[in-house]
Every structure is written in structure tokens, then in C-alpha cells.
Specification:
The protein is an alpha+beta fold. It contains ten helices and 20 strands. The chain folds into two domains: 255 residues, Gyrase A, domain 2 (2-Layer Sandwich); 102 residues, Elongation Factor Tu (Ef-tu), domain 3 (Beta Barrel). The chain has a six-stranded mixed sheet. A five-stranded antiparallel sheet has the order 5-6-7-4-8, with helices on one face. The protein has a five-stranded antiparallel sheet with strand order 15-16-17-14-20.
């Protein structure tokens, strides 16, 4: 079926939409509890177990935001600013992008795709959206490109599990494969890498829907999928080992420190962009001495940007990148570290041991 049309209940939220509180108003309407953490606003529902997540879940992504880039020069402009190819981005694919300072340090990380009409969408941390949008806008100059915060016009919903693909069929979408896109009126869908949960692959898709249609879309999805907290979606992001830049980690990492080139976030053949020489030098001159790792900890959630210490103590060897509570207890997290420091034993964060887990992709020797 097609996406449901605007309902009376959704129309009643128009005042909140107009004031910029779109996702908060929607979350409250859907019965979520709103909380704040270091990653932004969180929409919390009743906890789900791993079997429920594997069957099918949906999350309101209140801690992510959306930048829309339009104009005749939108692709050409972004191509000169971001770490990956934008000029040859097809409407059928999604790509990871980084935005770096002149020193090659990441200011933001994005999931990007192009709508059929040519507008480019960049999905990023809601807490980092406005600083990045303002900085990019400073360099537009005479280019015909406009960058807008679309977070009050669009709602981001993550879906995953074995029944999620059937839900997409129910919305009239062909189910796209990994890093592919599908489009319908008022709805865009990007397929993300599957993650392994309880030993089984769990497919995931990110939906971008018109705010006016989001509540009815949610209720339509609820026929097959269970509501899950935004922190549950962030947990699956941790398992995918894709970094997310937030204010406390901005300007801390060259892309390779976060394995960004290993997930296709850096194109070394494209033209120049801020920090390009340093990123290229890091790639081709000598062995990379810092990487991002996946770990589990039996304790509270460490803050992004907080220190990671080597097993023998002493000076910090790295930083926390992304963390989320695990449905099975404790917390799963991504951290960046000197590779040599991990050879001496189990590192710690906030006094808690970080038990290394296998990444979903190999790190070259």
C-alpha cells in the first residue's frame, strides 16, 4: 500500500511542527519518554530483548538530524568539501561522508543520498548538525547551493529485523540492498549494513518521511514491528562499527583513526577537499598507528570523548567514540586507540574493563 495520508491526529501537531519541535511532539504523541544524553534527544520505549529486535523493530531517531542541499551546484559544491564522491552519486545509492578541518580532523560524519529530483540529503548527529551546516554555508560563496536544516520538515525512523523488509513492501517500496536507496512520494529509504545479533544477521533500513505523514507511517509499521528506543538503534549503529561525530569528538580524529576509509567513507581518487592532503598522507605514508575498535563493558555508559586507558595505566591511549546500552546488559561501544596500547592487555574506560569484540569488517595488517 502507499503511505497513509495526513490524519486529524497528525494535523493537531502542526503547531509543534511549526515551532521546530516536530520530532519531540511526535515522540510524545506515540507514547515515548523523552530524555537527553550526550548524543542528543532520546525517545525511549519499553526495552526489547534481542529476539524481539531480531524479529522486527522500529525506532524514532530523535538524536539524528537532516541537512538538505539544493541548487544547480549542490553536488559540485559538496564534492569540494566532503571526503567522498558526490558528483557521481546516483539516486539509487547511499554513501558515507566525512567533513574535515584543514588539519584533516573530522568535524562531522554523514549518511548521504540523492533524491530523484536532485536534492542531496545528509543525515548526521542532531547535536552537530547546526555547527556543520553553518560552516559549510560559509564556503558556498557564488555557488548555486543552499543548505537547510530539514529536521522540522522530515522525521527519521530506523527499522530492522526479519520482518522489516515485509514492512517496506507494505509501503510500496522495493526493498533495497546494502547501501542502496528506494523512493516514494514523501518517503526515502536507505539500506544500511546488517549487524549480527545473537549470531544472526539483522538487516536495517533508515527512513526519511515527511513530518505530516510520520505518525500514520509509524502506526502502519507497528502492524509488524515493535517500538524500540532510539538508544536501541544507536546500539545497532555501534555493532555496525560506523562512527558518529558529536560535539565532544569533533576535530579529534583523522578519518582513518575511525576506520572511515574501510567502510567506504573516503575516496582517495576524488579532487581536493579540506584536509585532503593530511588524510592522503595518513593513508600512504607508513603504518596507521591508531584505529577504532568494538568492545563490551559491564558497567555504565561512558561519555563520548572520554579517555581510554591502557591496561597498565598511565597516559590515555584513546577516546570513546560511540556507546549504547546493550539489551543483554552492560554497554557496547566503539573506541579509538593506539593499536600498540592494546597489546599490553585489557584497556579501561571510567575504571571499567573494555572487552574487545570482533569488528564486522577486517582491519588491514
Amino acid at each position: 500500500m502507499s503511505i497513509p495520508s495526513l490524519s486529524t491526529a497528525t494535523a493537531a501537531l502542526s503547531a509543534e511542527h511549526d515551532s521546530g519541535n516536530t520530532v519531540a511532539a511526535l515522540a510524545q504523541s506515540l507514547g515515548a519518554t523523552l530524555l537527553e544524553d550526550a548524543y542528543g534527544l532520546q525517545a525511549e520505549f519499553a526495552p526489547l530483548g534481542t529476539e524481539q529486535i531480531q524479529t522486527g523493530f522500529m525506532s524514532l531517531l530523535t538524536d539524528l538530524g537532516l541537512i538538505g542541499v539544493s541548487g544547480d551546484d549542490a553536488a559540485a559544491f559538496l564534492h569540494t568539501q566532503l571526503t567522498n564522491d558526490v558528483e557521481h552519486l546516483e539516486t539509487s545509492e547511499g554513501r558515507w561522508y566525512g567533513y574535515c578541518s584543514p588539519k584533516g580532523r573530522m568535524l562531522g560524519s554523514f549518511l548521504g543520498f540523492k533524491q530523484p529530483e536532485g536534492r542531496i540529503f545528509l543525515i548526521c548527529s542532531s547535536t552537530q548538525l547546526e555547527p556543520v551546516r553553518r560552516r559549510l554555508s560559509m564556503f558556498v560563496l557564488r555557488a548555486k547551493a543552499k543548505l537547510q536544516d530539514l529536521s522540522s520538515e522530515k522525521v527519521l525512523i530506523g527499522i530492522g529485523g526479519q520482518q522489516a523488509g515485509e514492512s517496506l513492501h507494505g509501503l510500496g517500496l522495493n526493498v533495497p540492498g546494502p547501501m542502496q536507496t528506494a523512493h516514494a512520494p514523501g518517503l526515502d529509504c536507505v539500506s544500511l549494513p546488517a549487524v549480527t545479533i545473537a549470531g544472526k544477521p539483522c538487516p536495517r533500513w533508515l527512513l526519511v518521511v515527511d513530518a505530516a505523514q510520520a505518525e500514520l507511517l509509524w502506526h502502519s509499521l507497528s502492524e509488524r514491528l515493535e517500538p524500540a528506543s532510539s538508544t536501541t538503534w544507536r546500539w545497532t549503529d555501534v555493532l555496525s562499527a560506523i562512527p558518529r561525530i558529536v560535539p565532544s569528538t569533533a576535530e579529534q580524529f583523522v578519518p582513518q583513526m575511525l576506520n572511515f576509509e574501510l567502510v567506504g567513507g573516503v575516496n582517495f581518487k576524488k579532487g581536493c577537499y579540506p584536509g585532503q592532503e593530511i588524510v592522503a598522507r595518513s593513508q600512504y605514508l607508513g603504518k596507521l598507528k591508531r584505529r577504532m575498535f568494538l568492545a563490551h563493558a559491564e558497567g555504565g555508559q561512558p561519555e563520548p570523548g572520554s579517555d581510554v586507558l591502557p591496561a597498565n595505566g598511565g597516559e590515555p591511549c584513546g577516546q570513546i567514540v560511540l556507546a549504547a546500552p546493550s539489551p543483554e546488559g552492560g554497554v557496547d561501544l566503539l573506541f579509538e586507540s593506539q593499536t600498540a596500547a592494546l597489546q599490553s592487555g585489557t584497556p579501561t574506560a571510567s575504571g571499567i574493563d573494555l572487552i574487545l569484540r570482533e569488528l564486522p569488517y577486517p582491519i588491514p595488517a
